[in-house]
Design a protein that fits this description.
Largest sheet: 7 strands, parallel
EC number: 3.4.21.94
GO molecular function: serine-type endopeptidase activity
Strand order of the largest sheet: 8-9-7-10-12-13-14
InterPro entries: Galactose-bd-like_sf, Kexin/furin, P_dom, Peptidase_S8/S53_dom, Peptidase_S8/S53_dom_sf, Peptidase_S8_Asp-AS, Peptidase_S8_His-AS, Peptidase_S8_Ser-AS
Number of strands: 27
Protein name: Neuroendocrine convertase 2
Subcellular location: Secreted
Radius of gyration: 24 Å
Helix content: 10-25%
CATH class of the largest domain: Alpha Beta
Number of domains: 4
């Protein structure tokens, strides 16, 4: 767990190797000509000169540490198998240089870059009637009423005005006539070529249309007779081009996530580690620091909003193995199709908070997501969880317009309370209720986002109480695992009661686990809370044949116990399932609780409680006030 405070710049050079070691599908031995360089105090003004003297194309100051610079090459597409030891030694000998780290290359894949198989609000945009995810009247054999309920939010006057959403992707066609009026050039940047013009690089197969399509979902202008409309059609969209180079680096990711956090409100990411069902990977050290700074300092201290596509690995993968989607600092969004079922490529995991929409399963060419496309074109063929994340970013922009004071945690609470089951369904994962009555699904999270309900609640929302973190306990002894039975471990905790960091009402729960086996993909992990809520932390991944690395202090996360009382016994079940007998060792489990000490919705709870007293004057008050407040809280949560 990364400390929320700012680390000193020097500590950033103590690189975390755990995530890199776990990157089962990552490239090995790939090094770029990008360097993280720390200059001595007072030498910052010489950065460009130092870079030029050592043959670099330029230097860019990094915002997440003192004296840190990104030295980048002139040719971004050049990579090598070995470290540039000679260049590194020359830099280290320069009296102006304090530390040097060459950036290793790793893969980050666009999510949802795929084709569909063969492919009352009055707006004049020609594709609006095809945008079933906005207003679903049964188009393309869809389910009428299954949509984001944006019409209600629009009717209330909320269209995203004053909010800026950054699309972190392969660039944006900012000359597109449906985007140009809402394009925020000042908040945009190209980290692939280090200039302020994030226009997509040309390819003859339109591969770099991904970001433009996502941008249109959020901020395409309304009533201009072009394409369709964005969910937040009066919001501003910024382009952050950062995917289009041979390999990703920690510097580029961290720079993108921390770009202009006082101007950009929401960052939308439709990418992540390879969705091949065998990769375990997540953000590196600089990116973790940038995210921590974002939620603590972004938007004037209210926190940057990070929206993440949960992944396109389907039933062969588990999004809890993706350190971006499973982070507490991101809002992980899955997708549903136009008849309410899960898409075939959807991953499931306990960290998913909610869902929006992607394409339908039918061969109907209009069952995809209608949006803007490269070179002034429109498309009906956008799909995948790539399409889902920008839709969520648009809904959150509507909520931020309704209440600009919302924090990053407020938006997560609003998502939990206002998302709806609607007509979402899956044959395998059924809807369940947690210990305080909140309905959730392992695939869909707390349901599909409801823009109308969210803006109405956001208007009256008061910021949730301070957040606390409690290490609830740890099991350090090794336990052998086999295919013959399940290993069951228990941690009984008081949730740090009596201490300053007492957690009474849960938000996120992390199970930090170290385990390995003869076949990592056959591991399954489930955790049950004291209030009886069972979270599937890890499902079987049949394509993952790792026998060496396993999981090393990997933070599996669940949102399914939201609002519960964490005091009592937590039970972890670790097993091996598969076609052949396997064995392994469970080495460590640490339980981490995150939440508040007082009820997040205390004002509403007290009003409900007082109303009940007034309606039953003759009824005797039984129990203590705390117990009554708890019951009222559960009633409120269930009702919402």
């Amino acid at each position: 767990m990364l400390a929320s405070g700012t680390r000193c710049a020097a500590s950033l050079f103590v690189l975390v190797h755990v995530v890199a070691a776990l990157a089962g599908g990552a490239e090995e031995g790939i090094f770029t000509n990008h360097f993280l360089v720390q200059l001595h105090e007072g030498a910052g003004g010489d950065a460009h000169q130092v870079a030029a003297e050592h043959g670099f194309g330029g230097a860019r100051k990094l915002p997440f540490g003192e004296g840190l610079f990104h030295f980048y090459p002139t040719d971004i597409h050049h990579t090598r198998r070995r470290r540039s030891l000679e260049l590194q030694r020359r830099l280290e000998k320069d009296h102006r240089v304090k530390n040097v780290v060459q950036q290793q290359g790793f893969s980050r894949k666009k999510r949802g870059y795929r084709k569909i198989d063969d492919i009352e609000t009055k707006l004049n945009d020609p594709l609006f009637t095809k945008q079933w995810y906005l207003v679903n009247t049964g188009q393309a054999n869809g389910m009428p009423g299954l949509d984001l309920n944006v019409a209600e939010a629009w009717d209330l006057g909320f269209t995203g005005k004053g909010v800026t959403i950054a699309i972190m992707d392969d660039g944006i066609d900012y000359l597109h006539p449906d985007l140009v009026s809402n394009y925020n050039a000042d908040a945009s940047f190209d980290f692939s070529s280090n200039d302020p013009y994030p226009y997509p690089r040309y390819t003859n197969n339109w591969f770099n249309s991904h970001g433009t399509r996502c941008a249109g979902e959020v901020s395409a202008a309304a009533n201009n007779n072009i394409c369709g409309v964005g969910v937040a059609y009066n919001s501003k969209v910024a382009g952050i081009r950062m995917l289009d180079q041979p390999f990703m680096t920690d510097i580029i990711e961290a720079s993108s996530i921390s770009h202009m956090p006082q101007v950009i409100d929401i960052y939308s990411a439709s990418w992540g580690p390879t969705d091949d069902g065998k990769t375990v990977d997540g953000p590196r050290e600089l990116t973790l620091q940038a995210m921590a700074d974002g939620v603590n300092k972004g938007r004037g201290g209210k926190g940057s909003i990070y929206v993440w596509a949960s992944g396109d690995g389907g039933s062969y993968d588990d999004c809890n193995c993706d350190g971006y989607a499973s982070s507490m600092w991101t809002i992980s969004i899955n997708s549903a199709i136009n008849d309410g079922r899960t898409a075939l490529y959807d991953e499931s995991c306990s960290s998913t908070l909610a869902s929006t929409f992607s394409n339908g399963r039918t061969r109907d060419p209009e069952a995809g997501v209608a949006t803007t496309d490269l070179y002034g074109n429109c498309t009906l063929r956008h799909s995948g969880t790539s399409a889902a994340a920008p839709e969520a970013a648009g809904v959150f922009a509507l909520a931020l317009e309704a209440n600009p004071n919302l924090t990053w945690r407020d938006l997560q609470h609003l998502t939990v309370l206002t998302s709806k089951r609607n007509q979402l369904h899956d044959e395998v994962h059924q809807w369940r209720r947690n210990g305080v009555g909140l309905e959730f699904n392992h695939l869909f999270g707390y349901g599909v986002l409801d823009a109308g309900s969210m803006v109405k609640m956001a208007k009256e929302w008061k910021t949730v109480p301070e957040r606390y973190h409690c290490i609830a306990g740890s099991v350090q002894e090794s336990h052998k695992i086999s295919s013959e039975g399940t290993v069951t471990l228990t941690i009984t905790t008081d949730a740090c009661q009596g201490k300053d960091n007492f957690v009474r009402y849960l938000e996120h729960v992390q199970a930090v686990v170290t385990v390995n086996s003869t076949r990592r993909g056959d591991l399954t992990i489930n955790m049950t809370s004291p209030m009886g809520t069972r979270s599937i932390l890890l499902s079987r991944r049949p394509r993952d044949a790792d026998a060496k690395v396993g999981f090393d202090k990997w933070p599996f996360m669940t949102t399914h116990t939201w609002g519960e009382d964490p005091r009592g016994s937590w039970v972890l079940e670790v097993g091996l399932v598969g076609d052949a007998p396997q064995e392994g060792v469970m080495r460590e489990w640490t339980l981490m609780l995150h939440g508040t000490q007082s009820a997040p919705y205390i004002d509403q709870v007290v009003r409900d409680y007082q109303s009940k007293l007034a309606m039953s004057k003759k009824q005797e008050l039984e129990g203590e006030l705390d117990e009554a407040l708890d019951q009222s809280l559960q009633s409120l949560l269930s009702r919402n």
